[in-house]
Amino acid sequence: MKTNILILKSIVVVFTTAMLFSCSNDIKEVEKYIDIKDNVNMYGKDIKLVYSDSLIVRYKLNAKEYLEQINDKKIERVFPKGVFIRIFDNKGDFSASIKADIAKYNPTTKVWKLSNNVTIITSDGDTIKTEEMFWDHKNSKIYGEKYVRITHKDGNYIEGNDGFFANESNLENAEILGEIKGKFEI
């Protein structure tokens, strides 16, 4: 009996010693798993969010990766591998979809910043493409300050370099700012 206890204690000591020597305090190795510099507060993969108001689904969001960062007491939600958002109107009917390679959301200002290959497709089949856009939930506005191309379902399009402006509930009437050009069949 004493021999079994001695063997068990020896195994525990050997195992504990091996565990202690296998640990590493190399900061580069640790940063592979969590980026301390970015102050990541929350992390998630394969995110599916549904936002509803008064029992009506308003938005559905899918993302491969989600980070919540806190910098200088400011919270920012980051989707570094892109988002796909479906927007629904007050009746719960599909209104538009938005896709972007990178997205950031500030919950304090309620403003999204979407960048890299931003594409909006309206329920009417119109497409808005740009490299950067802002979606202001608080004021129900969508706008951008960079090149934009709006293609209608009939193939006609307009484009401009100075950005665009649209009301969240009526994306079909987006306005291009500055000089515009395009193709129109009459």
Offer a concise description of the structure.
By secondary structure, the chain is mainly β. The protein has 2 helices and 14 strands, in the order ααββββββββββββββ. The N and C termini lie far apart (98 Å).
What does this structure look like?
The protein has 186 residues and is mainly beta. Helices cover 14% and strands 55% of the residues. It has two helices and 14 strands, in the order ααββββββββββββββ. It has helices at 2-22, 27-31; strands spanning 40-53, 56-71, 74-79, 83-88, 94-100, 102-106, 111-122, 127-136, 141-144, 148-151, 157-160, 164-167, 170-176, 180-183. The radius of gyration is 25 Å and the shape is globular. The model is unreliable at 4-10, 12-27 and 29-37 (pLDDT under 50).
Task: Give the beta-strand count.
Answer: 14
Question: What share of residues are in beta strands?
Answer: over 45%
Distance between the termini: 98 Å
Mean pLDDT: 78
Look up the CATH topology: lipopolysaccharide transport protein A fold
The profile of the biggest β sheet is: 6 strands, antiparallel, barrel
Proper CATH architecture: Sandwich
Tally the helices.
2
CA-atom Rg in angstroms: 25 Å
CATH superfamily: Lipopolysaccharide (LPS) transport protein A like domain
How many separate structural domains?
A: 1
Helix and strand succession? Answer: HHEEEEEEEEEEEEEE
Spatially, the strands of the biggest sheet line up as 2-3-6-7-5-4
> Which term fits the overall shape?
globular
User: Can you tell me the CATH class?
Assistant: Mainly Beta
Structural class: mainly beta
User: Which stretches are poorly predicted, pLDDT < 50 over at least 5 residues?
Assistant: 4-10, 12-27, 29-37
